[in-house]
Amino acid sequence: ESSTWSIPSSSYIEELAAKRAVNYEAIKDCQIKEIVIGEATDSEIREFSEWIKINHKKDMKKLPVPLISFDCEFLDFSMYFTLNMFGKLGIDTIDSDLDDRLTWPVKMQIGNGYSYAGIVTFHVPETGYAAKPSTIPKAFIEFLEDLPLVTGCGIRNDLVIINKFMKIAYGREVKFRGSVDISVLAVLAGWTLKKTNMFTLAFVGAGVLMNKLSCIGYDKWGQKFKNLALSMRCYAISDIKVCWLLAVTFLTTILYNWFPDQKATCSHTKSRPFDFVKHFMHWVVESAKDSTLNNNEFQVSPDVDSAIRSIRKYSSMFKIEKESPRIVKAFLSLWDADSPLFFKIYILKLYESTDVDSVLVEHPDPHLFVLKSGNFEEEYCDEAPMMPVFSIWTHSAPVHQKPHNSRESEIFPSQTSRIMHENEPGRLEHFFALVTFAFLIYLTWDWFIYTFEINGIFAHMQKRYSEDNKKV
377-401: string of b/e by CB count within 10 Å (b at 16+)? Predict the structure, then answer.
């Protein structure tokens, strides 16, 4: 088994590299399917949903990224127009509210953007009058709520706008599973540039230039996809494609930085490469879920550690927490590629079946982690004296902690009190090492005896010489 990671495969990386261009040719090889809200039936929406799932599973087989790229284009309409269109205009409506503007999510793009892309359109004809479904199709709400964690640049803001529109227009709320912002993944991968907009992330992270002028759309995004200008169609598809490329790039960078050696990692976790990557990426994504960057802290962060500390969880729809989540402490402790492998695996094991916010508890000593595990607490010190000394015979390390007492895992089996399990070939290596050591002693024994004898003769001669001098 090679020390270099086989996931993602070189063929998949070449495939992404070949498809990353943002041009008029990019749309030709992409399979596109569109549904129009107000025209599509429940059965058509469910068929569309199943098509998205099938294609997403194909992506997961190549690289198990538990995300799907999502983007939305918007148009602004007056509140009067919106309430009138959806039959919500009544005598109790406050006149001042009618002057407000409401953002409509007129077009949603879902998929990887290079092999498939699903389009959802709230059709707004050029006359300015939208299709007026009396109720939102139940199948469409189920489709949105059944999506995996969605990712994009500023993705949470998109979800907030969608929910606000659904609540006002249809009186329904969509419970998305959650979102992961590309900027958060970028920071966890080591990003320290002060710009995290789509243009900068695409250019630096994927080597792609995007024409952001196309996203303006000149109020045409409400049209059906086939009626859009070619530049707008290419932009809509490329937007989710670049987000997918960035998610793959940043997650793979985190994997390679923390666990550079595939053979050692899979050997000590007793797992296949694909299973470990799937588990690890799921852990990173769940850790970054519903987070953002505290811009005030991020803009003055001088290094990677400070940038990671600027990550915040959302405490409500619009507010972020004042302090960094506890998961940040784990990320900071694991960021160093030279950290011992067993400690990284131990942290992953703790987070496998435990609420991430309850694993690490505050401790007055910054060098100590207090780890909650059932009804007892244990401490782990990351200072130099606690670093393990690896055995030259078995390639294993002593462990200072007991493993987390939780349910069995296919990736991290809880069979012994050691975090790093010795594999079977290690015993054979131990035997050959002892034999080699014994053989070396046998070869050098005569040399040792001869050396000791010579030293004894010289010592005896020196003693006699000293005695003779005293007599003289």
Answer: eeebeeeeeeeeeeeeebbbbebbb
